[in-house]
What we know:
There is one protein chain. The chain is an alpha/beta fold. Among the domains are: 18-97 and 277-307, Fumarate Reductase Iron-sulfur Protein, Chain B, domain 2 (Orthogonal Bundle); 110-258, 3-Layer(bba) Sandwich (FAD/NAD(P)-binding domain); 322-388, no CATH class; 540-650; 682-759, YaeB-like fold, CATH 3.30.2310. 42% of the residues lie in helices and 11% in strands. The protein has 33 helices and 19 strands. The protein has a five-stranded parallel beta sheet with strand order 3-2-1-4-5, with helices on one face. A five-stranded mixed beta sheet has the order 6-8-7-9-10, sandwiched between helices. The chain is elongated, with a radius of gyration of 36 Å.
Amino acid sequence: xxxxxxxxxxxxxxxxxxxxxxxxxxxxxxxxxxxxxxxxxxxxxxxxxxxxxxxxxxxxxxxxxxxxxxxxxxxxxxxxxxxxxxxxxxxxxxxxxxxxxxxxxxxxxxxxxxxxxxxxxxxxxxxxxxxxxxxxxxxxxxxxxxxxxxxxxxxxxxxxxxxxxxxxxxxxxxxxxxxxxxxxxxxxxxxxxxxxxxxxxxxxxxxxxxxxxxxxxxxxxxxxxxxxxxxxxxxxxxxxxxxxxxxxxxxxxxxxxxxxxxxxxxxxxxxxxxxxxxxxxxxxxxxxxxxxxxxxxxxxxxxxxxxxxxxxxxxxxxxxxxxxxxxxxxxxxxxxxxxxxxxxxxxxxxxxxxxxxxxxxxxxxxxxxxxxxxxxxxxxxxxxxxxxxxxxxxxxxxxxxxxxxxxxxxxxxxxxxxxxxxxxxxxxxxxxxxxxxxxxxxxxxxxxxxxxxxxxxxxxxxxxxxxxxxxxxxxxxxxxxxxxxxxxxxxxxxxxxxxxxxxxxxxxxxxxxxxxxxxxxxxxxxxxxxxxxxxxxxxxxxxxxxxxxxxxxxxxxxxxxxxxxxxxxxxxxxxxxxxxxxxxxxxxxxxxxxxxxxxxxxxxxxxxxxxxxxxxxxxxxxxxxxxxxxxxxxxxxxxxxxxxxxxxxxxxxxxxxxxxxxxxxxxxxxxxxxxxxxxxxxxxxxxxxxxxxxxxxxxxxxxxxxxxxxxxxxxxxxxxxxxxxxxxxxxxxxxxxxxxxxxxxxxxxxxxxxxxxxxxxxxxxxxx
Length: 768
């Protein structure tokens, strides 16, 4: 990712866009922040917000005509917020808290003719910028028409305070001036730049034609002259319009004196559009809290209650639903900035690597985002680049890649034509995780397909290579996929019937030359088997896997199958194209095991009933701990009468590891009558352990077979440490990059395992 790509990505995220009220405000007052402070009775902080944005908040805060109110998002679910009255309350009970600094004097003779609120604002902004202005009015006081319009809302002392503020910034104030055309004409010679406030200056006194005012810069046709304020056409008088014109004019005058562009980058001045996206669904309706005394305005209690109605407009729709973004407390814009810094500057830090590797790559956030922000694409591409440049430590994905290698090896992999045939029209590809979790169901599914499809149904036990792809191991993934396509080609290039939505997605994206069908769509077109378990009377919440996000036909067939077999189902609160990941996708649960658990809990929490239904092996495997009663649809179709699909136990890492090999061995023996292959000697070791140790091994990504290997090597070589106090032995074994340790003791017919742990560190070898 380079700087231009980073900027393009950052621009997609709208979280930092102005909320609707602020965008509609001509001077962009942070109404959202003001509401948050007032709701918590943090009056000083609330006043800081007004002091920071408003010119003369003691005036403007009392009489703001709240042009933002029609744009308040709260209006979709009740009344819009009374922002103007709340500003009035704030300035009535607080004094100035924040005084903006005054910049050093820059020079330039500046005049403001007319001391309406527009002229006052222009004089204040220019004086703060180091351009002390001379404010000239024919009246005996400041404010133009404001004192007459506002009446009792503006006590006289607020204008005295405004005058003192202007003088404090170096402005010169001339009241009661005698103005005529000759005087004004002389000002054109005396001053470098002049602003005319139409609320307090008679246009007939201009010694030149006012002509057309530029709406962006407020520049008049006379060089160095600007004009604004007053009433525009048939529009009502607006004090916020006066403030905006004064501020706009001050910026134009400053640029004029600097000799730079008057028009560049001014798109967001004044009321402007915003890309903010805020969902109000689920927020309770609420009516406006009106002041008991319209004259006195809000009491403290009334102000807090009204401010508390604010829904604090922001986007964060992806964060609200994504366990990954919640965990790292990031939204896409800040996330990609951190990823860029890690990739381009730091080039691999432990915390950033963990963040990059923890994304499930599920694309849920992209579907949610109104601008399709590709978080998964960024994380995936970063993994690939860091692997290619040697900046990605292998530890995060070592276990998953080891399991993939095991699945592709001789112990588990199998590809055969249907017994008694020499050609295959179809090739059943259950996927590595289904083979590990439900080997008996895989066998019954295959038998069913051979009975109902013609032309020969081969069987292919393997892995699609997704773990390598998710790990950013592009070369390894390419090799796995290439080998897979070669094997399919050797079988006569039959159509693959794929059970796993992840495999289906991988093949669809990376192997479009393969003919691929979803098992669910195949089953939906066939006569379904007789159901052999008691169908629940209450609906099961159906959980779509995240990898079926773009597989609408698959999702439809799953629901069709449920209807045909009479299995009552209902939808999750978020499903279909918005489905959560269960924590397996992107190897999340290997790179960040606690987060994987949270993701599973979050997905399970989308259930609307007490019992669930999955059609992804890992969704069921990961959610069964969170949602005890969870069935897999294949288990329902091809149920073992002795096993309730809803109460099957979780298999676990070691179970899936062992069952893949057992499935191959059993099918070779029962279907193809191959002689049994000799088993590795360490597998003959019998291990006893309690449930606590099994959970510990699972959490540490350690297989029971890993412990068997440690003990076999230790007992064969005699290399172990012995603790005479308790009779236990401690031994280690390093088959590759991971070193495993086992604490155990001999038993009558095997060994008792007391603990196991591992470390995935590689120390650099010393130079010889």
